[in-house]
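User: Some background: our group keeps a shared notebook of sequences we're curious about, and every so often someone picks one and asks for a predicted structure to add to the entry. Today it's my turn. The entry only has the sequence so far, pasted here. Could you supply the structure so I can complete it?
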Amino acid sequence: MPTYVCLFNWTQKGIEEVKGSPKRLDAVKKTFSELGVEIKEFYLTMGRHDLVVIMEAKDDAAMARGLLALGSRGAVRTETLRAFGEGDYRKIIGSLP
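Assistant: Of course. Here's the predicted structure to add to the notebook entry:
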């Protein structure tokens, strides 16, 4: 399954309601699971981004649906990076002309 590194920042609404964010995370996990997306790792971070989440999805379309569903709730903004593990990295580099 494809892996994604997702960088999250709370919106004004999200930070104003930050105490409710653990319950929102539980709801998002359920929604993501129904869409074929699994949260593998979740981190609260300090610095430019508020949260970093590692996810796997059955495909890019499932990931897009999950992130659109999440974004429509208005608590976070996302930046998503498609990640390739070491094995894929070696295959990609090895296939270069």
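Suggested note for the entry: The chain has a mean pLDDT of 97. The chain has one domain: 3-94.
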